[in-house]
Amino acid sequence: MKKPVKTQELDLSIASLAFGGRGVARQDGFVIFVEGAVPGDRVRAVVTHARRSYAEARVKELLNSSAERVEPKCRHFGVCGGCSWQTLSYDAQLRYKQSQVTECLGHIGGIRGFEVDEPLAAEPLWRYRNKVEFSFSAGDRGAADSVKAIGRSDASDAAIGTGLDLGFHLPGDWRRVVNIQDCLLHSETTNAIRNAVRDFARGTGLAAWEQQSETGFWRHLVLREGINTGEIMVNIVTGPGDFPDAEGFTKNLTAAFPGIASLVWSINDTRASVATGFPFTVLAGRDHIFEEICGLRFKVSPQTFLQTNTLMAERLYRKALEYAGLEGHEFVFDLYSGIGSIALLMAKSCSEILGIEIVEDAVRLARENALANSVTNSRFISGKVRAALKNIELDRRPDLVVLDPPRAGASKKEIQRVIELGAPRIVYVSCNASTLAGNAARLAEGGYQLIRTGAVDMFPHTPHIEVVSLFERS
Ligand SMILES: C[S@@+](CC[C@H](N)C(=O)[O-])C[C@H]1O[C@@H](n2cnc3c(N)ncnc32)[C@H](O)[C@@H]1O
Questions:
Q1: Which tens digit of pLDDT belongs to each residue from 313-339?
Q2: Separation between Cα atoms, residue 101 and residue 211, nearest integer Å
Q3: CA dist 3 to 51, 55, 185, 430, Å?
Q4: C-alpha torsion sign, points 345, 349, 355, 357
Q5: Model pTM greater than 0.85?
């Protein structure tokens, strides 16, 4: 077969799933990654990109449906960029996630021969997120063209607005968003709040922020909801300028949604299209909300990280605690400690725990959270892991190091410093199996053997998976 070319149509059998979630077909030595296809499907696909050794395509027509295919539940599916695995049965999702973890560790890290726990299935499967981030965009009919371009002929126009839009980005289009009416990943209440904020923003006549011209006002909306406390945080992120009728907006929104414990407004006047990390003004309530995890109460601010699936975070942390195998006498390091979620849980089972975290506000909250939960054997240092470990003076070697880095994993130098700490055991909590695998390879070079891994599904209907791993120094 000749190399496929852009816009060419191909009939393909989908053999497997790639890391990241696309279907994989092979034709005459060519690998074709197919958006919207699941293993077992036979599809007619349109080539969207042709590279030297592989091509990318999207499904145009389903010729034969896989036994693992299910009907997507969300009305925005196929238009919205999220939850791409909704068409795969949940059993299959979990099986593929588990095999991607072991494949990453084997192929990228060269790590084999470790114990693999049964993956922990997510519960519930829908409306599980405690945080969602939406973007505003100028509503235009062009968005409907994008919908046609991604092959969703049945997308209702209701999903694509005409005024100011608020929702998730169209796949691959950072300028336009799908006007979300009901996202099944978060609660009905927070869906209603987003829709009310959109109605208000439309009524102001102010435009959405435009990246290119750096004009406009409305940028993002971040909603957080304490699943175990019912407290809601609404964070509106705008460009520079006065917030129109802030008083009326605040009064109406908090009256309509009494769960709002914190309503804050942040100004992002930079080019970076990010929704958090900026100073904010409290419009109503507090500058934080509370969430409870594993019986501990945590203060969470707009600047700080919290696992986005509260109920599965409890199971994740309990697994990390189990892997830690603490007996009570240990000195523990919690690297990338956030607001202290893991540290405060482990503190009860060890003699002393030291957290290191880059975000100062998270360190402040970790200290407050320790006090509020009567934890007296924890300390938190603010700074980058690499620098903090370099400067720290220790009179005792840690017995255990817990690592919970962001998606990019720990850097080479950070892993080197961890190895130099010489702890007999490491528990690594990862949200990205490929960076875990790279870090595991370095730990292996430093004398650490991977003993056991356990996948915990925090993100059903997406290809993401969380993994806890135990390493021991040989
Ligand atoms: C995946 S979160 C884990 C937080 C916490 N362990 C939890 O479970 O809530 C990663 C954390 O690492 C922090 N972080 C990112 N880069 C860092 C660095 N170089 N040094 C220290 N902390 C960092 C982030 O601010 C974030 O709080």
A1: 999 999 999 999 999 999 999 999 999
A2: 37
A3: 9, 9, 39, 37
A4: negative
A5: yes
Tokens of 172: 């691959």
- Helical residues (DSSP H) of 422-465, grouped into ranges: 433-445
Contact residues for 430 (Cβ-Cβ < 8 A; gap 6+): 404, 405, 409, 436, 439, 466, 467, 468, 469
382 CA → ligand 1 middle, Å: 11
Domains of the chain, with CATH numbers? 9-69 (2.40.50.140), 94-124+309-473 (3.40.50.150), 131-293 (2.40.50.1070)
From residue 403, how far is each of 67, 337, 429, 439 by CA, in Å? 39, 8, 6, 11
Residues 59-110 pLDDT 10s: 999 999 999 999 999 999 988 988 999 999 999 999 999 999 999 999 999 9
> How large is the angle between the packed helices 90-107 and 433-445, nearest 10 degrees?
30
Does the Cβ of 387 fall within 6 Å of ligand 1? no
Ligand 1 center to 250 CA (angstroms): 32
Instruction: Check pocket membership of 56 for ligand 1, CB cut-off 6 A.
Output: no
